[in-house]
Write a structure and sequence with these properties.
The chain has 318 residues and is mainly β. It folds into 2 domains: 4-233, Jelly Rolls (Sandwich); 243-318, Immunoglobulin-like, CATH 2.60.40. The protein is built from 2 helices and 24 strands. The strands form 6 sheets. It has a 9-stranded mixed sheet with strand order 3-4-17-10-14-24-23-20-21, with no helix packed on it. A hairpin with a 3-residue loop joins β23 (297-305) and β24. The longest helix is centred in the first third of the chain and has 13 residues, at 4-16. Residues 4-19 and 234-242 have low confidence and may be disordered.
């Protein structure tokens, strides 16, 4: 949950530095606070983040299971955030956000949002990072997958709801079904920018399960988020193309450029809803995805493999 005095200090700082190289608030999940959810019950949430228990629906919050916890299993420092899918009336997805949760028993109607009218539920952010990195551990059940999504935007925004995409400045996203529950894996997701302006807010969505079909018991730990900047930040800057990236030759082949393909053993392709559309091995810098029969459009490709790194990037199939 947000600390109002932190927001006030940030507002003063941002008023004088309109193009600062921002970082997320409490990105290492070291600061936690007790939240009163009903006399005498309290839970613990990371400062500047929130979960189902502090949603905008108090009746559902009271009955919602605890899906967000502090963990002493950390990549660095003392703590990380632990999200778990919990079976109740439905399987509640382990979820956290730096905005606010709007829950619904009909999961198609649930979302997370930036509340521009209440500083507890928004994160001011006025720069254009090239990518975001972080660390995770994941123990999925079945074919579950975690999600990290970052939307840089103007004004009110919510996710998932692409009707609000007109307010987006840029976004980055990671899906992973890698079962690495014993090892911290590093991820790196580049931002895709939709225009040349500066954002006002960053909305981060974390899930330990697939949004449409989360599996009970899937557990994800996250730690040490960091925004990476490779270029000066001005309102007319265009993002720098990363030294390593993936591009589509056509709808049949992807090529890994500027990265050692030997570091990766598996590739996953998802559509923009998060649906898995292709999964296969990586044996060279050229990946044959022809068996998927994909139509032209935007897809998310995730590489994982021998080392700690998980690389995720959007690609456009012609």
């Amino acid at each position: 949950m947000k600390k109002p005095w932190v927001i006030a200090v940030m507002a003063v700082m941002l008023s004088g530095i309109t193009a600062a190289q921002n970082q997320l608030e409490n990105p290492g999940f070291e600061d936690w606070e007790d939240v009163l959810i009903g006399d005498p019950d309290t839970i613990r949430e990371p400062a500047e983040w929130s979960s189902l228990k502090t949603s905008d629906n108090e009746q559902l919050s009271d009955f919602a299971p605890v899906v967000c916890e502090r963990s002493a299993d950390s990549h660095s420092g003392k703590y990380s955030i632990k999200l778990t899918n919990v079976a109740s009336l439905i399987v509640a997805n382990g979820a956290a956000t730096n905005g606010r949760v709007h829950p619904d028993l009909n999961t198609d109607l649930a979302y997370m949002f930036t509340d521009t009218l209440d500083s507890r539920w928004n994160t001011p952010f006025t720069s254009r990072p090239d990518s975001m990195t972080g660390w995770f551990k994941y123990t999925p059940q079945g074919e579950d997958s975690l999600q990290v999504k970052i939307i840089l935007h103007w004004g009110y925004s919510k996710q998932p709801d692409e009707n609000y995409a007109t307010s987006w400045v840029g976004m980055a996203e990671l899906f992973s079904s890698v079962n690495n529950g014993e090892v911290w894996n590093r991820f790196s997701v580049p931002f895709t920018y939709l225009n040349e302006g500066l954002p006002e807010y960053a909305l981060v969505v974390l899930n330990s399960g697939d949004r449409e079909d989360p599996k009970a018991g899937s557990t994800a730990l996250f730690d040490d988020f960091e925004m990476i900047y490779n270029s000066p930040q001005t309102s007319i800057d265009k993002p720098v193309v990363p030294s390593g990236f993936i591009f589509a030759v056509d709808s049949r082949y992807l090529v890994i450029k500027g990265m050692r393909h030997e570091e990766y053993t598996n590739a996953v392709v998802r559509d923009l809803t998060g649906k898995l559309v292709w999964n296969g091995s990586v044996s060279s810098d050229r990946i044959d995805i022809s068996s998927a029969g994909l139509k032209g459009g935007i897809y998310l490709v995730t590489l994982s493999g021998k080392g700690d790194d998980v690389y995720s990037q959007k690609i456009v199939l012609p």
